[in-house]
Design a protein that fits this description.
The chain is mainly α and 130 residues long. Helix 3 runs antiparallel to helix 4. The protein has one domain. Helix content is 74%, strand content 0%.
C-alpha cells in the first residue's frame, strides 16, 4: 500500500463518515447530549480531507498531516468498534441490526489502520502525487 492509497481512502472516509453518521443519528440531533459525539465525525472528516489535500500538493510535506488524520481516525474507530461490540444486544440508532453496524465499524477500523501504516511508511512516493 502506498501514500496514494492512503490519500484516496482519506478522501472517501473524510466525506462518507460524517454523512453516514449524520444519517444514522438524524433522529437524535435534537438531543443535546448527543451533539459532542456527533460533531467528532466532522472533525475526523476535516482532518482526513486536509491531510489528503496536503499530500496531494507534496507527499513528503503532507505526510504528517495525513498521519495525524489517520491517527485520530484510528483512535475514534477503536473506541467506536469495541463499544459497539459491548452493546450488540441493544438496538442501534441505525435502521440495521447492531451486528452489521459492528461489522462495518470493524472493517473501517482495519482500513484506517492499513492507511495509517501506508502513510507512515516512507517510500519512493515522497514526491508530489500530482
Amino acid at each position: 500500500m502506498t501514500i496514494e492509497f492512503s490519500r484516496r481512502l482519506a478522501i472517501v472516509f473524510g466525506i462518507v463518515t460524517p454523512l453516514v453518521e449524520t444519517l444514522r443519528r438524524w433522529h437524535q440531533l435534537s438531543d443535546l447530549s448527543v451533539w459532542p459525539f456527533w460533531l467528532d465525525d466532522f472533525l475526523l472528516g476535516g482532518l482526513l480531507l486536509y491531510g489528503a489535500w496536503r499530500v496531494g500538493k507534496d507527499a513528503r510535506v503532507g505526510r504528517p498531516f495525513l498521519a495525524a488524520g489517520w491517527g485520530f481516525t484510528c483512535g475514534m474507530a477503536y473506541g467506536s468498534f469495541f463499544t459497539q461490540l459491548n452493546h450488540l444486544h441493544e438496538p442501534d440508532p441505525a435502521p440495521i441490526p447492531s451486528i452489521w453496524v459492528a461489522v462495518i465499524k470493524g472493517i473501517g477500523l482495519a482500513l484506517a489502520v492499513a492507511a495509517l501504516v501506508a502513510t507512515l511508511r516512507p517510500g519512493a512516493d515522497d514526491r508530489a502525487t500530482r
